[in-house]
Design brief:
disordered N terminus; Neuraminidase; Immunoglobulin-like; 9% helix; six-stranded mixed β-sheet
Length: 489
Amino acid sequence: MKHKILYLLMILTLTACGNRPENVRKVASLPPIFPDYTGVTIPAEIAPLNFAVVGDKGKAERVDVTVKGADGNEIHTNGDYADFDIDEWHELTEGNRGKRLTVTVRAKRDGEWVEYDDFFINVSPQPLGEWGLTYRRIAPGYEVYSKMGIYQRDLGSFDEFPIIENTMTDGQCYNCHTSNRTDPKDFVFHVRGKHGATMVSRNGKCTWLQANNDTLGGSMVYPYWHPGGRYCAFSTNQTRQGFHVSGKKRLEVFDLSSDVLVYDTEKNEILLDSLLSTKAWSENAPSFSPDGKWLYFTTCLQQEYPLKHKDEKYNLCRIAFDASSGRFGSHVDTLFNAVAMGKSVTWPRPSYDGRYVIFTLCDYGYFSIWHKESDQWLLDLATGEARPAEEINSDDADSFHNWSDNSRWLVFTSRRHDGLYSHLYIAAMGDNGRFTKPFLLPQENPLEYYGQSLYSFNTPDFTNSRVDFDSREAVDAILSDERTATNVR
């Protein structure tokens, strides 16, 4: 008898979970959901777009969501928020590549169920082609920071893994994990502080370089790999920061000087050139073209800092590079004259198909994360025309960005959610040269995650596989202070 009762309770429970709400009142509006996933375009490989129903009255008591594919299949969830089964989600998205999903949302408030207008999610025919993302996560502080580190995230699930955290090394600061065209067999990051170093990993072998070179006058930062893997470009910056005493801006970061260089991993040599290391100009933020024949960078006329920090305005330039000899070209081309517009360029990133360069445009300076007005711009290399990427820009700081290997997806940071923290957004690049509506990086419980997180994401990049890195060995190497000196050519 006891077994029959338990079996009956199980049947009733399963039936209740599968039931749809009854006596539902229709409302003629889209559901107020967080994150806003209405009308976005996603790769089939992405983790489920879980969301909560929110609004002026706060979070809904319960939600009931059905997602139907154009192929006739559907999935259903009922709970505190839309929490989709990962396997069911991927089966649905894979079966609807190049098609759209129809999402029906019902929500319960004050004991009453309402049903909103359906919205759509487009599943791109273009694959993502990447395992995940790498990024730094840090509290948006100034001189003092708490726990921070470099992490990697599986984009097909919600799994996140630390690459290295500063709690392992007495509170060190880690900067800019950068791989070669999303391939982590070559990557680099910089360690700041008393155990400073530039770590270069090439084909699984780690070299810990001295953080500073007396000839350079600074450390090697803002890296970008040459596609061949032998070279990596850096800038060397004497960075300072100043605080605003009034107005809405809190902080400005500027450089007393900066130059661009290229590091030869085979010869352990730093390659300098008089066109990239000038006293009158600050060269910054280098990146190689996907064919390796050009080195892009930004440059501005050196100013009196901090007094004239608002006159620090950068143009986008390039110089030829010969990988066989490690030599630079004899002249510099200006690709985008932001100074003529009264603006400043930062973080140029060429698409890997060689068609575009995306960059951030702000009023002055280059540390765009602190500039509310900063926006994404797209330069068409075939026509030489540049335009604001208004389809992905917002009213708050839109900043650092990187392409997927197939140049069909872009990840970037934005403070559009709350104006305080930089979060990660992903958008698809269409055949028409325009981006689709960006979507916030999915989390298992996004309202709870983003509501409770006190960290900003920065320097995001795609990675085609999980980063293979022994953090314990790295900690021993960092604390040992054994460093390889660099030679200057």
